[in-house]
Amino acid sequence: MHIGRIRLKNGFFLAPMANFSTAPFRRLCREHGAGLTTSEMVSCEAAIHENWKTERLVARARNEKPFAIQVFGSEPKRIALAAEALEKRCEIIDINLGCPMHRITEQGGGAALLGKPAKIRGIFDALTTLKIPVTVKMRLGFATKAGCVGIARLIEQGGAAALTVHGRTAKQNYSEKADLGAICRIKKALSIPVIGNGDIFTPEDAERMLKKTGCDGVMVGRGALGNPSIFRQMAEYFRDGEYVIPDRSGRIGMLLRFLDYARGAPIAVTRAHAAYFAKGFEGAVGMRRKIMKAKSAGEIRKIARL
């Protein structure tokens, strides 16, 4: 699969998730076979002013290439300035037209831009000097899906190299199942690669997404939390028709590896990640409760080894 001139080893993508798509977690997902990983969303203003938090958000993980950085904002020229400031740090710039969080949309960013086609045109007009591919991640709309195909066409006409579609509106958040029919309509209308996103927790879910939408790839978000091996599982399933589900030992092994990579990370972020690994085995609930009370990564490590 290609995005512009960038060749990917497969069409299995890790979603840009705030507070979760950190460099340590992206590194783990790449080791398990993710074809492309993307940073947490980065404020265009923070990128322009080189806010100290930006460095942590855009730091490339070891062996993370290709790597995409996602930018959010509300003003085309500011988004373009941020993209120009970041383009030497990555292989792909991704524009956020999908975040449903109120603190983002109330400022006119994220999914709020889906109702402002003139601004979407303005973003691409302002990005013409960029030398690397630009992609977009969108929802089906802010409150309604009615204009989703038109917006997707506008994004392609603007010059996007690929489009990821999350199969819900911003107002739906995660309250309903992803609309695969709407994603399919977008895929049929475009000639650039389209990546389907929403409700992918197993390889069978990925297969359903691909078969029902015709998409070129899948993006996994919540389904990767605590289980970065889902990327390996998908590769096994599409190759062999079966896959190995990690047992307690496998889950703990991934957690310990994550803790190795996350040395020095804020404990709140480490705890939140670590808790997701404690599921799917006997005693997982008790372990998760202990992890959420841990004061240090070392304490989490001890809990995991009990």
CATH architecture of the largest domain: Alpha-Beta Barrel
- What distance separates the N and C termini? 43 Å
Structural class: alpha/beta
The best one-word shape is globular
Spatial ordering of strands, largest sheet: 3-4-6-7-8-9-10-11
Uncertain ranges: none
Structural descriptors:
about 300 residues, two-stranded antiparallel ribbon, TIM Barrel, alpha/beta, eight-stranded parallel beta barrel, single chain
Describe the structure.
By secondary structure, the chain is an alpha/beta fold. It folds into two domains: 2-240, Alpha-Beta Barrel (TIM Barrel), CATH 3.20.20; 248-305, no CATH class. Helices cover 43% and strands 14% of the residues. Helix 1 links the parallel strand 3 (12-14) and strand 4. Helix 1 (23-31) crosses helix 11 (248-261). The termini are far apart. The mean pLDDT is 95.
Summarize the helices and strands and which ones pair or pack:
Blueprint: E1 2-3, E2 6-7, E3 12-14, H1 23-31, E4 36-38, E5 42-43, H2 44-48, H3 52-58, E6 67-72, H4 76-86, E7 92-97, H5 102-105, H6 117-126, E8 134-139, H7 148-158, E9 162-166, H8 180-189, E10 194-197, H9 203-213, E11 217-220, H10 230-240, H11 248-261, H12 267-277, H13 284-293, H14 297-305
Parallel strand pairs: 3-4, 3-11, 4-6, 5-6, 6-7, 7-8, 8-9, 9-10, 10-11
Antiparallel strand pairs: 1-2
